[in-house]
Structures are given as structure tokens and as C-alpha cells.
Amino acid sequence: MLRLQRCVLTQLLSSRSASPVSHLRRLISAAAPVVSPNPSFAVENYLVDTCGLTGAQALKASAKLNHLRSPSNPDAVLPSLAGLGLSSAHVAALVAKDPKFLCAGVERTLAPVVVGLTGLGLSRPEIARLVSLGGAQFRCRSIVSSLQYYLHLFGSAEKLFRALKYGSCLLSSDLELVIKPNVAFLEECGLDPCDIAKLCTCAPWLLSTNLERLQAMVACAEGIGVPRGSGMFRQALQVAFYGEEKITAKVDHLKNMFRWSDAEVRIAVCKAPMVLTLSKDLLQRKSGFLVSEVGLEPAYVAHRLTLLTYSLEGRLRPRYYAVKFLKENGLLDHGRDYYAAVVLREKAGVMAPVQCSVFRNELPLTDKYSLLVRLNSEVVFYLLSVPCLDVSKLPKVYLDQLRRLIYCRTAYLDSDGPSFREKSDICKFMIVDFTQRREPAYYSYMQIITQ
């Protein structure tokens, strides 16, 4: 029986023109014998031995299956899931999260849902992924009409699945009474369907909350100075989810920390509402670095609040030290703005406009590499080293660190700078690509000009 059910469902899924549900019903009904209750059936053992749950998971899940007296229905569900392509691990995770999935009717519910989703253009792997993300909602036939609406709203299954990763609230909410009224209200606020999809990809709860709360969130966003239709309105809505009381407290904290006036704090929040989601400790450390160490004026930060959204160790600090080092050694104009170096995209080249001069030979080679290892992130760094660079002279500790941190490739330098053209040898342009690293906070490029 199980082999026949697996075969039937697999054929249904692999065919682009799905067979009628009634045909599937007839086949499964014909294959399914009448099974009487099994007095010796132990749900907890079945969950461990057949579904792959741990003892603790099975104990917890069995409490929701105490009405189950026979393995006949679970024995029909499991091959159906396998036919969709779910691995044993995925099946175990699904059953642990939603034990009642084993009680779903294959003929009455699962098969019609699969047929409907296939008709919407979802592939078998996509349906399997939806089972894992949707869980209990996949056991409802209404999921087909919901998916039809969401696929149109988000534009693709991938974008929808990205939203469902944050929670299956979209699938459990009433489409007509909750979702559509919220979408209509957001459109009234000046957001087009594309904006709504982008907003709700990472904040799907905006669509599943009640309309009154969504209206209050819009009022809160406007209250912090971000009007409807502005570029930051989407971000302000995400922030407004925290509630007016918490937002007011965070605004007051920013104001006191930077000694901003009411006008300055309003300007700052309008430019980067997401800064209100940062913890007080993180804000304190970033403000301390920018004001005390970099020497920026509070008013300067207020007009460039995006500075606070960048990583302190991954971007703010290393780029500051790189700019400082270049200025001290005559490789960068002292008028170069710190903010411009921070916000420039990683692959654009932080120091691309630098008019390089011959690097001072007074700095020992080992010190140069020590600096590079210390900066080891985020910096696109131009440097003329001493003649006849010989890495064999470097201490082993530097070589080991460089091998671990760096991926190099060589190209030729194309520059009109006379200091380069007058050289007898062609300068090599080495791009040290930190995108090859997997650790956080090491993302971009460091460029070293050697001779």
C-alpha cells in the first residue's frame, strides 16, 4: 500500500499537467485497506522508530496524538512527504513542530493541496519547502488561495519564502479580513505593491497585525518625523513596531548621548530611523568612538546618522585608522572626509581617488605588514612599499596571518600619475579580496600597490 501511495503522489508531482484529484482519491482509496484500531500501538515509540524524533521530542509530541489508535494514517502521510522530496531529517523536524501533521488526510487534504500548488506553478522542491515553512497551515486547503494571492503580491516564490522564514503568520492570518485590508491601507499611505513586498519580506507581521495597530504604527512613524511617501517611511514603519513608549525612550537616549537639540535629533531620526533599533550599549560604544576618538562634532553625526548603522569593528574603526595612516604618511589629502570613506561601497575602492606619492621608506617592511594585518578588513588601501619587495624577509607570524586572511590576484595598474609612469618597473596592482573569508566583519577589499 505504501509503495503504491508513494508512486501515485510522485507521478502527480512530476507531471506539469496534474491529474485530477478524484483520480488520486480513487487510487489511494483502492489501495487503503480498512485498518482496525491496534491496541498495542504506542505513539511515542512510533515517533522515535519511524519518524526519527528524539525521546524528548517524542514525549512532547505524543501528548498531541493521544487520540491516535493506529499507524494507518501516519503510514500514509510519511510516504507522501517522501514523495515531495523531504528528507528524513526534514520530516522529523516537521513532525516535532506539528505532530498533528501525521493525522492529515492524504486523500482529503494533502493531495488536493499539492494539485492546487502545482497548478500555481510551484515545483516539487518549492512545495516541499513550503511544507517545512508552513507546517500546520499546509494541512488546510485554503493555503492554495492564500498562496495565489501572496505569489502575486511578492512577485516570486523565493521572496515569499523569505518572508515565511520570519514566521508563518501570513499563512495563518485571514486573507479577506486581515491581510487585504492592511495591504489596502498601506497603499493609501503611498506604498506601491513593490514597496509593500520589500517591507514585508523582513517584517511580515505588518500584514498579519490588526488594522488598528497598523494605523497606530503609521501615526507613530509620522510622529518621529517621517512622513508618508518619504524614502525612509518603510524603515520608520519597521521601527514603529516597537511601540511609541520604547521609541520615545530611545530618542531621548540619543538626544542626551550626543547632546543634540530637538531639531538635530529630528533630523537624525528622519535620515536613519533604523538606528532606533540598536541597543543602548552599542550606541554608546559607537558614539564614544566617533566623538571621542575620531573627533566628530555631534551636529556632524546628526546629519550623517547612517554612520551609526555601520559595524564598529568591521567598518568604522578600520577605515578610520586607514584614513589616518594615509594622511600621516602623505598618501591622502588631509581634507578627505571620514564619512566619505565610510559610506563608499566596499568594491568601489575607498582610496580610489588618492593621488599616491612614493611611500616613505623609513617605515620598516615588517611594520607595513603588521599594519595590514591589524587593519585586516573593510579597507581599500593604497601603499607603495620599499623596492624589491621580498616577503621571505617577513616574520613567520605575518606570513601565516596573511595566508590565512588573504586571497590575492594580480593585474596591471592603470594610472596617469607621473610618480608611477616614471618608475622603471610596472607597478603591480594586488587586490586582496576579503570576500573569500567566512568570518563576520571581513567583507571587502584591501588594495596594495607594490613595486
UniProtKB/TrEMBL annotation:
GO BP terms in the entry: DNA-templated transcription termination
UniProt xrefs under Pfam families: mTERF (PF02536)
InterPro entries found in the cross-reference section: MTERF (IPR003690), MTERF_sf (IPR038538)
Keyword Transit peptide: yes
GO MF term set: nucleic acid binding
Record keywords: Transcription, Transcription regulation, Transcription termination, Transit peptide
SMART domains named among the record's database cross-references: Mterf
Record-stated family: Belongs to the mTERF family.
PANTHER family assigned to the protein according to its UniProt record, in alphabetical order: CGI-12 PROTEIN-RELATED, PTHR13068:SF111
Name used for this protein in its record: mTERF domain-containing protein 1, mitochondrial
